[in-house]
Amino acid sequence: MLNPFRYLVFTGQTKTPENVANVDDALHKGEEWLETNKKTFISETETGVPFKDNFADLLALELSNRWDYVDLRVPERRWHYFAVKPVIVPEDYPEDNDTNAVAFSILKPTGSRAKVLIDEILACKNADGIVQVHLDRNRPRIAPEVSANILTLFYSYGRGHEVQESLNYLQEAMALEEYQESRYYFLPEPLFFYTWRLLCIASGSAVGTVNHYGLPKELHTLRDHLARRVSARIGTARDNALCPAVRLLICHSLGILNDVDVQILLDLQEEDGSFGKAWYVRYGSCGIRICHRAFAVVLATVALRRIKQANVRTKTTVWNRDNGDIVH
Q1: How far apart are CA 139 and CA 190, in angstroms?
Q2: CATH number assigned to the domain covering 7-320
Q3: Which helix (H) or strand (E) holds 148?
Q4: What percent of the chain has pLDDT above 90?
């Protein structure tokens, strides 16, 4: 008999959703919306201010693998969250480690250029050794979501061992039973999404697959926390498409049963094929929320396509917590 404290068991999705025709229709409408609106993706504040956002466009590019969807201008050196000019915050709003970590982990520039940035980020550790949000050391902000993205960058370049304090900080956040809002985020799904990206990339895979054989041992507990936390959130946050879409992507890759969120996501699709204003981040200074409609559509369509393609065969996987080996 397997020791339940030593092994982690996931049961793969056993069937395609019964409403397969509805999934097909939602996919068609969502992908049509993306084709119609490509190159014009924008973010919007809850006060109605539109702006161009490099961060969400980069994540949309990574998930869709479609350069023709986005209008990204690759800078000579560092990236900025705002693609044109800042809105709501002052015009001298500083560059941030979060956007740069996401950009470099996705675009993978030359080693020498990446080394310069990574070394600059390392210089932004606080007294506890946690990498701060901004390249400006005079802004001593930290957030577990940002730590997840910074860790992804460092692991993608084989330097994860240099930011273990940030990993400990992320582990502590993921070990909690209830989500604690950070300065920039108010829902747990973005934290889950960024942690999932870390596990995928650190295991040597593209985003979408966690290679359990290749996952570094120090990330095994983080994987266990992610599985537990996502499972507990299934069926919640029914008014924000980003939430069920993120959960479906993670559940599919980890083999966790989740039929509930498929219907929730389908119900949130609007007539034009989009999935509404899925608020996902906020300004730290004033708390105004931000949505990126296209990012929500990319998340939803990628999640639904993977569900559609899911193997209908029952699959149970058992991992050894100690070494990550697949037992059964």
Answers
A1: 22
A2: 1.50.10.20
A3: helix 144-156
A4: 82
